Amino acid sequence: MVLTSPDLLPGVDITDLTVGADRILWVATNNGIYGWRDGAVREHLDTFSGIGDNAVKQVYLDGAQRLWFVTADSVGYATTGAQVQAPGPAIPITTFELPTTPVPAMAALPELTPAISVTMTSERPPAPPDPLTGFLQEIQAFLKKLSGR
């Protein structure tokens, strides 16, 4: 089954998606985060749940199945699936506010241009010695020793 924005609520815009090990599709929207499975919304995280801002830009599931999310003013994660220890529908959420002061700009780095040096020569490198010539010379020297000359 295909999921579209009207399946969630009219006027909801989907901004990002991720899928968990439990096959729940987590959908970031301008109205919070929806957990979609088997053709229906199973979870809905919004400002009342603790995500801070309903306009969620991105969602990501890490290896521990924590659902990370990014809003305009915070980053956080929701503990999902089998990790939820509390009884009831509440999903624990942890948020971290993003700094409001601008980050100082880094100084521009100089542009680096690689330099390659090539030297051309008309001389040919010496050819490697012929192994057969050296072998024949050794045989001649051996025969001279045998003959006593």
Q: Would you mind describing this structure in some detail?
A:
This protein is of the alpha+beta class and 149 residues long. It has a domain at 5-97: Beta Barrel (Thrombin, subunit H). 14% of the residues lie in helices and 31% in strands. The strands form two sheets. The chain has a four-stranded antiparallel beta sheet with strand order 1-2-3-4. The chain has a four-stranded antiparallel beta sheet with strand order 5-6-7-8, with no helix packed on it. A hairpin with a 2-residue loop joins strand 6 (66-71) and strand 7 (74-79). The longest helix has 17 residues, at 131-147. The radius of gyration is 36 Å and the shape is elongated.
Number of strands: 8
- Summed up, the helix count is 2
CATH class of the domain at 5-97: Mainly Beta
Determine the oligomeric state from the structure: single chain
Could you name the CATH topology of the domain at 5-97?
Answer: Thrombin, subunit H
* Large-scale geometry: elongated
Strand content: 25-35%
Order of helices and strands: HEEEEEEEEH
How do the strands of the widest beta sheet line up side by side? 1-2-3-4
What value does the Rg take, in angstroms? 36 Å
Task: Report low-confidence residues grouped into runs of 5 or more.
Answer: 82-88
Which structural class is indicated by helix and strand composition? alpha+beta
- Overall pLDDT confidence: 77
Major β-sheet profile: 4 strands, antiparallel
Q: Which percent bin holds the helix content?
A: 10-25%
By CATH, the architecture of the domain at 5-97 is named Beta Barrel
Q: Termini distance?
A: 99 Å
